[in-house]
Amino acid sequence: MPSSNAMPGSAPESVLRSVRRPSPGPLPEAAPVSPCAQTSAQTPVHTSAPTSAQTPVPTSAQTSVRTSARTTAVRPSPVRVSGARSGSGPVPGPRPDGAADRARAHSAARSRRRQAALPWTLMYHSVGDCRDDPYLVTVSPERLGRQLEWLRRRGLTGVGVGELMRAHAAGRASRMVGLTFDDGYADFLEYAVPLLLRYGHTATVFVLPGRLGGVNAWDEQGPRKPLLTADGIRAAAAAGMEVGSHGLLHLDLTAVDEDELTVEVTESRDLLREITGREPDGFCYPYGATDARTVAAARGAGYRYACSVDPGPLAGTFALPRAYVGQRDAAGRLNAKRLLHKLRTATAAGGPPAAPAPTPVPGDGISVLPGGRDGARDGVLPGGRDGARDGVLPGGRSGRGTAAPEEPR
Questions:
Q1: Handedness of CA 89, 91, 94, 100 (dihedral sign)
Q2: Which single residue of 49, 159, 273, 395 has CA 20 to 30 Å from 37?
Q3: Average pLDDT per block of 10 residues along the chain, 409 residues long
Q4: CA nearest to 17, candidates 50, 67, 56, 63
Q5: Are 72 and 34 a contacting pair, CB within 8 Å?
Q6: DSSP-derived secondary structure letter, 9
Q7: pTM exceeds cut of 0.70
Q8: Range 111-328: architecture per CATH
Q9: At what angle do helices 35-42 and 60-74 cross, to 10 degrees?
């Protein structure tokens, strides 16, 4: 039976003595005991009378009284914010004035850093007679040979973009340059491949499996140039060149509907797999026309990378920027373009900014550094949103049907 002098509702003194431990020190001022703790404290504890040989043992109810009280003392109830999910913190209010501009500037800076961190990649098209070349897409075999020799003398090796991106991911791309040839002209096999092999380089050729053995019908002006056949594509692959997709028909993919976009990126990949025996890793957007929808389509089709020209905020693995190379690009201009790429990389890393004024290259008489929206496609060429014909021509959105000026501005 409980001690006769115990207060009603309290535990026997002998029980309390048996569970007392050294006090850890004064507790902070306790918050009001929770209702469940108060209820436990007011519940009478019934124990059987201890015999002289028994040591009273505290019951679980008594222990819970002290535990609940102590827990309540050191753990105040959390403050909930109205409208916030559990664990999400306060709901952010509207941004202060200027915050949207700062966010946009931060996003643009991130994009510049991403683009500058990507390896240097050059963009060619046709190799052959460039006397009738209104779109400035042709370099002569002699000029291409000198450009490839320029790379070799500087210890740079031209490679396909797939190899370049694998080396870049492994930190081994510092002496590599991506070489690309758009449209899949038959002269790639006739002129470019022998020169690439002579100077120890490889490249990626982006072909149009929907126009096998056809011509460049998308160019309204200039000569008709024959395109690679299926046998020509296999021969290029056998020579060690990477084969990538340029879509089926050379369409501006930002202007087509969803079904046609899917056909262009997926069926061209399937056809190239049938021709070469392997799935192509790379895709190249015709005209360099790129938007978020086309980037998502290339990624979703299973490609490992995609090439653009000047993708702006979209720059990344599926919108790789490239520098145009043409007939006028002798050693001085190539040095300037390489310098511009290095300056962009240094600026993104917090180094000195690129020079804001155009810089003439001795011997060429043409300004090649910054100008226009983004250095006019690496500072040498005018162009609209997508460079008007893969970043090389002025006029219109894609430059189709617009003749080039006598020389690039």
A1: positive
A2: 49
A3: 43 44 46 41 40 44 42 44 43 61 70 67 97 96 98 97 96 96 98 98 98 97 96 98 98 98 98 98 98 98 97 94 96 94 70 41 34 33 35 36 32
A4: 56
A5: yes
A6: T
A7: no
A8: Alpha-Beta Barrel (3.20)
A9: 150
